[in-house]
UniProtKB/TrEMBL annotation:
The keyword NAD does not apply. Residues 68-349 form the SMP-30/Gluconolactonase/LRE-like region domain. GO terms for molecular function: hydrolase activity. This is SMP-30/gluconolactonase/LRE family protein. It comes from Phyllobacterium salinisoli. It holds the Pfam family SGL. Keywords: Hydrolase.
Length: 362
């Protein structure tokens, strides 16, 4: 049985610990995280962000117990959200009607990015082992959409988006085969880390080949621009903008966002006004010299996690306008809910949510 809000509120502290131990996805503390309205966790960095904040809405923790939460995708017909728990090799399901959090698929080939196609089917990036992009049919059957390019295996499909014309776009960095935590360590076969397009005819094309470990991606509302996170951007993680032609060709590469505060841009979504809602946290960069920590010398982070963890919102010109502070680093997010205005945030061990005054561009 999945943990529900009613279950959590009805058990005491000792029972909560026992429940969390027995259920890897049990709640660790009550929600909402802040009792005051407006929630101090929602920071307005520019007056233009004020209209997106709902005064009587606060950040809620819906579930916890994952090892690295990623790839949330919302399915409005059944009102549930899927989220990958990569190191645990499973996809979890949050049912917003029953307020339950259960295992949807295990094993899941270290699934990372998920999305919904125009017919309501699940599209998944299997991050390791199989190293492929698959579609789950309505009857549960799995259809392989891409696993090789030019006769060689893909690296580790990471994030995925479906364009209105039915084409599927995904990134293919190395994370899932770099080690044995988010997958199984293997040698790459591709010479570059690419962004691919699967045509409606099933043909796979490498659209962008000049990014080092491309990560999250999303289209502008008019789909004329494709935004892509470069994980190994120089000197910082970046979001690049490309013009996309009708035939899928990419051109006019422009750096839209530079995470100059030692932040880690990851997965993101674009709202109907063209704003980019980006998973954010520390990029792990260390200071050049050690500091005294608890009586010993240690190399500390350049950017404090407690200042960076959350969701950073940029306007279409790349200016930061808002920040949602979270107690954990946010890797990816998705808009959902009956009205499309509930922001789901997959954040390290937990799933959080916040109602906002906007919705996805898709």
């Amino acid at each position: 049985m999945g943990m529900t809000r009613r279950n959590i509120l009805s058990i005491g502290g000792a029972g909560l610990v026992a429940a969390a131990a027995g259920k890897a996805w049990g709640q660790s503390f009550p929600f909402p995280l802040n009792q005051r309205y407006p929630d101090p966790a929602i920071e307005i960095l520019d007056p233009s962000f004020a209209k997106y904040r709902l005064y009587a809405s606060s950040v809620e923790q819906l579930a916890t117990g994952m090892r690295w939460a990623e790839g949330p995708a919302y399915f409005p017909e059944e009102r549930y959200l899927l989220v990958s728990d990569i190191p645990n090799n499973r996809i979890m399901k949050y049912d917003e009607v029953n307020d339950t959090f259960t295992v949807f698929r295990s094993p899941a080939n270290f699934a990372n990015g998920n999305t919904r196609d125009r017919e309501g089917r699940l599209i998944t990036c299997e991050h390791s082992v199989t190293r492929r992009v698959v579609r789950t049919e309505k009857d549960g059957a799995i259809t392989v959409l891409a696993d090789k390019f030019e006769g060689k295996r893909l690296n580790a499909p990471n994030d995925v988006v479906v364009k209105s014309d039915g084409t599927i776009w995904f990134t293919d960095p190395l994370f899932g085969i770099n080690g044995n935590y988010e997958g199984e360590h293997e040698k790459p076969e591709q010479a570059t880390t690419n962004v691919y397009r699967i045509g409606t005819d099933g043909e796979l094309a490498a659209v962008i080949t000049d990014l080092m470990n491309p990560n999250g991606l999303a289209f502008s509302p008019d789909e004329k621009k494709l935004y892509i996170v470069e994980w190994k951007g120089t000197p910082n993680r970046s979001i690049w903008s490309y013009d996309i032609a009708v035939d899928g060709a990419a051109s006019n590469k422009i750096k839209l966002i530079d995470a100059a505060d030692f932040g880690a841009l990851d997965g993101f979504k674009v709202d109907h006004d063209g704003n980019l809602w980006c998973g954010y946290g520390s990029n792990g960069a260390l200071k050049e010299e050690p500091a005294q920590v608890a009586g010993r010398k240690a190399y500390t982070l350049k950017g404090k996690s407690e200042d960076l963890d959350g969701v950073m919102v940029f306007n279409p010109e790349g200016k930061p306008i808002g920040f949602i502070r979270l107690p954990e680093r946010c890797a990816n997010l998705a808009f959902g809910g009956p009205k499309g205005n509930r922001l789901y945030m997959a954040s390290s061990h937990s799933l959080y949510a916040l109602y906002v005054e906007t919705k996805s561009a898709v």
